[in-house]
Amino acid sequence: MATCDDVRANVQKYYGSRLESSGDLQTSAASCSLSCRPVPRSVTDALSQVHPEVTKRFFGCGLPFPAKLEGCRVLDLGSGSGRDVYAFSKLVGQSGLVTGIDMTEELITASRQYIVYHQKKFGYEKPNVTFIQGYMEKLSEAGIQSDSVDVVLSNCVICLCPDKRAVLQQAYNVLKEGGELFFSDMYASKVVPDHMKEDTVLWGEGMGGSLFWQDLISLAHSVGFSTPHLVSASQIEIYNSELKAKAGDVSYASGTYRLFKLPQNQVMSEALVTYKGTVADFLDQLDFDSSHCFKKDVAVEVNGEMAAILQRSRFFPDFKIQILDKPRSSSESTPQNCHLNPFLLADKLGCSVRQSSKTSK
């Protein structure tokens, strides 16, 4: 088996010099950023203002843009060219702060070139972004303090990291209590065989290192996070016929999940919650995830974990919360697998990027 250092070196080479643009990828992963769900106007506006050269080298697989980022301290894991960082820069506003971390020197150097451009584009007195070269599984060594971040975001890079537990643990550590990890990533329909993990191109494309989606649930719980909530999903098509043959019966999907850092001693009680209609872009209803849509002034009963999330997170001012005196069942805080499976959701939404006529390079 390749060591973690070997995997990092391969990924750095693959994204630092081999890939010139998202069009060089051999799957439809980057195209999955075209969400099947309605995209808020503020997000499309922010993305449209990112410099074209930055967007050109975007390699993400989703749209990890949660609501209500104004004034937040945001950390983007595997920031790459900086596309998402600069869009977040617009969304958090002058009072917010966005940090991008990436291990690839070429990408960090390239992304820093556009700091002043976006500062002026957004009309800010001073930049509100910074880029750090480092490893997302070693955030403390990169100078990111514990309990210092409101939202950790990531776009299709955890699948490139061999130690996913370390990534989630580090994200958990740097988040403030009530903070959230909101990320898009590639997932496999089954456990990826070892021989695929040894293939450098498969790993560079995210296929060799994709997590079996069910393993995310136990992994998240093991580091202290809440149950993952699936926000959106898309099927991923493999363009390269050789890579498709190597994948065999393993299918891939892009999934966007949100996980929260709740107090360890949090009492979980069911609640009746009513959305006030106060989140920008979501005045009539707040689409929280694929199974929770809160309509304005409509009371909804939620389980103990969701009630705790709404109580402890930045969304607390946007809800009226009435705790119910109900005993908690052993399974009430964990959604059914059908609500967490990105393949089922992608099928339900009819969200699949059509196979391209592109040939391998």
Automatic annotation (TrEMBL):
Catalytic activity: arsenic triglutathione + [thioredoxin]-dithiol + S-adenosyl-L-methionine + 2 H2O = methylarsonous acid + [thioredoxin]-disulfide + 3 glutathione + S-adenosyl-L-homocysteine + H(+); arsenic triglutathione + 3 [thioredoxin]-dithiol + 3 S-adenosyl-L-methionine = trimethylarsine + 3 [thioredoxin]-disulfide + 3 glutathione + 3 S-adenosyl-L-homocysteine + 3 H(+); arsenic triglutathione + 2 [thioredoxin]-dithiol + 2 S-adenosyl-L-methionine + H2O = dimethylarsinous acid + 2 [thioredoxin]-disulfide + 3 glutathione + 2 S-adenosyl-L-homocysteine + 2 H(+)
GO biological process, one term: arsonoacetate metabolic process
Coiled coil: none
CDD domains xref list: AdoMet_MTases
Enzyme nomenclature, EC number: 2.1.1.137
One GO molecular-function entry: arsenite methyltransferase activity
Lineage top rank: taxon: Eukaryota
Gene Ontology CC terms, in alphabetical order: cytosol
Domain Methyltransferase stretches: 70-204
Transmembrane regions listed in the UniProt entry: none
SUPFAM superfamilies: S-adenosyl-L-methionine-dependent methyltransferases
Family that this chain belongs to: Belongs to the methyltransferase superfamily. Arsenite methyltransferase family.
Protein name: Arsenite methyltransferase
Organism annotation: Etheostoma spectabile (orangethroat darter)
